[in-house]
Design goal:
The protein is an alpha+beta fold. The chain is built from ten helices and 26 strands. Keywords: Hydrolase, Protease, Thiol protease.
Length: 484
Amino acid sequence: MPYRPLGRPARAGFAGPDGRVKALALLGLLAAGLPAFARDPLPVPAHAVIGVQERHLQADDWIRRLAQPDRLLLDDAGVAAQNDRMRKDDRHVHVLQDLPAAFTRAQVRGWLDPLSAPPTRTLYDDQGREVTKPQLAAIAANAAVDAVAANTTARYGLVVHRADLRTFPTRQRVFSSRGDTDIDRFQESALFPGTPVVIAHTSADGDWYFVVSPRYAAWIEKRFVGEGPREAVFGYGTGASALVVTGATARTVYNPEEPGLSALQLDMGVRVPVLADWPANKPVNGQHPYTSHVIQLPVRRDDGTLALLPALLPRTADVAPDYLPYTSANLLRQSFKFLGERYGWGHRYDSRDCSGFVSEVYQSMGIVLPRNTSAQAVSPALERIGFDAGDSHEKRLAVLRTLQVGDLVYIPGHVMMVIGHDNGTTYTIHDTTGITWRGPDGNVVRTTLNSVAVTPLEPLLFNSEQPTVDRITAIQRVRPQGAP
């Protein structure tokens, strides 16, 4: 998602306890002007993605390079501490249970106003036609911002189907230029089945809810939310018996009896309760359950209310009984499960974008990250190296040499995950529209990717003049402050 600078000062070094800077041995050398590492030019294979050989596309190849690939980076208590810090210190992550039972107009407008101000720039529809000012005004009016009551009682729900989060309460797709229909400027994100939400407002046409979810506040079609009591919503999935989706996606078994639970997509990191006491020979939606897991999922009834019903998840699904251990090997295995998936701005195309990609990889290990790059890059809950425009190319290259598997590299509007080094070059996996680099003849080459891809970092260009390395704003390491 777009990088929206928040004005936080850049800090050099991985932050340590009490906000002090934890010394990196490397940073002591930077002031002395450590030179750039010499490299031979990277080859350009027939597929035209510079520096990427077949071995680079195999998670096991990167795992074999590690001395201790299965060493716990954080144990269960460490992951819990990391998440507690994230929820406490990062304003982009919402603890829904801590929200009040009623909202003032100012509180609701505080969520609504940043999203729902009428657009002022020129936008185009999917046919290339300019969206007129009256059309934009009507879309903005449906948000009913001026109709927010002085006091609003909080309502609660569970998401019942993978659903878009929108800037405005509309399915109208809009784009910055004619012919570029991949990046819908009204698309914010998506929510997955079982996600709890607090309903804060309803659109003028009654078809949309403005919801606050654990990591985002935006508009969702109300047909994708089952409304229920607070206790039922926050109690869902809290039992000990559960499954975590560890594949890129999993789907429930098709059934003709309960369409809301048929062939339902569950994305990596989704945790669903298991009905462990379900009778072994009792059918679920007309099917014997012995070849599947019997799980519980939310559905929306015709009157909008929430129901929790059994569904079948095939035993062949890539799932685990709990979140995976947080190790370098698992970071690599999980990220490579998305390799080749189509890039989807704001989780469109039933896939994900760059920040969604890294979020879901970490979520499969139970680790919570903010949704967007703008928030991830400045999160005070992570170990951050910040850069500013005055930092030299050589200093930046030297820092890259110290990076570990899973470290997150941020440039304006984008994030990449480090997977290792090969012959002095840093390699990353990221969900990207494409890469730019300079060919052997000195000309700038643009390679369209539109997928989760592996690329080297150092040869890439941010634009025709600037190396990507020189536009790195931050590097985040997913640890609580003070962790090794």
